[in-house]
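Bug #2210: token dump truncated for Probable G-protein coupled receptor 139?
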Amino acid sequence: MDGSSVFIAVQKVYYPLLCILGIPANLFTFYMICFRKCGMSETAIIYLSCLAIVDTFYLVWVILLDLCLTFLQLQPFWHSDPWCGILAVLQYGALYSSSWIVVVFTIERYLVLSVTGARQRFTRPRTPVLTCVAIVAVSHLVSVPMGWINEVTPVNMTLEAGNITLPRCRYKEALYSTVLVWITTFLSGGFPIVLVIIYNSLIAYHLCRSSQLFTKEERRTIRGANTRGMVRRTILLLGTVSVAFVALSLPRFITYCILRTEYNDKDFDRNDYSLPINVMSDLANMLQNLNSTTNFLLYCVVSRRFRRELLGTLTCGSKAREFGSFLTQNTMKVFSVAHPNSRSPPWGGHPCCPH
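Reproduced locally. Full output below:
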């Protein structure tokens, strides 16, 4: 077995595994963030739960329907019209949404920390809800032109049964497609990465500068405040998600720019894994797709409250405590109403001190 076959075999295992683990993890993360008290602010709950949902859609459109079906089926349904164009719109819409939710959440946290009047304005639940809805809507609207970058063309394929011709949804070699793909590359990768790095650096600078204004005792008092502690936990979660986003998205942006400049030739074989650029590009794609499955793990690592609520959910600890409380309350009621018409116990004396 040569290197190309090994690499393809790895991808056949890797992408289905991402779906099996990533989709349930994102849905469970959405439940934990929305319905369990994980110590997050209201705005963080809205942004991070929306991020979990759009990442789930990204896994469905890109990993499950595109990559997995390519390996598992000879003729997936999206290799025909109109699904060839519709799937591209859904894929890029989910990619835009995921990237720009992280960007907008980062900018919002910076404004809350640095601008005096921004805290009351941006901490209202209505503001992040409308922002997330606008991001998802605009992302899919901007992705509509991507429905025409691919076309269904007949392709000769060699199988065990012989040579057959099947329709395939392939990239359209045209100036229109090239320009759109370059724009999409910067809107989904280049600009978000730059903005996340800039605003996270500004947040770190603001926090360092603010810490120098207080003594050690004052900083200890501030950390003890509930609102300050919640802001600090939110910033920690945001920083972790942002770092993961940049680290996993940057390699794909770099390799794609190289492919579209140094190897921008219609005769270039993208499936030739004897070329290092093809291997590096597919590895970068694997990291990019991994970005949509890591948030659950990141929350478990950096958030003690998330881990505690997760453990309580998995072990049914909260239900056990609720049942115990319910049983205790009803037991006390039974004893308290045993003689409803008497203010003293049947044996006489003080109600709390039987003879």
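Output looks complete on our side. Residues 190 and 253 are 7 Å apart (CA to CA). Marking as cannot-reproduce; reopen if the truncation happens again.
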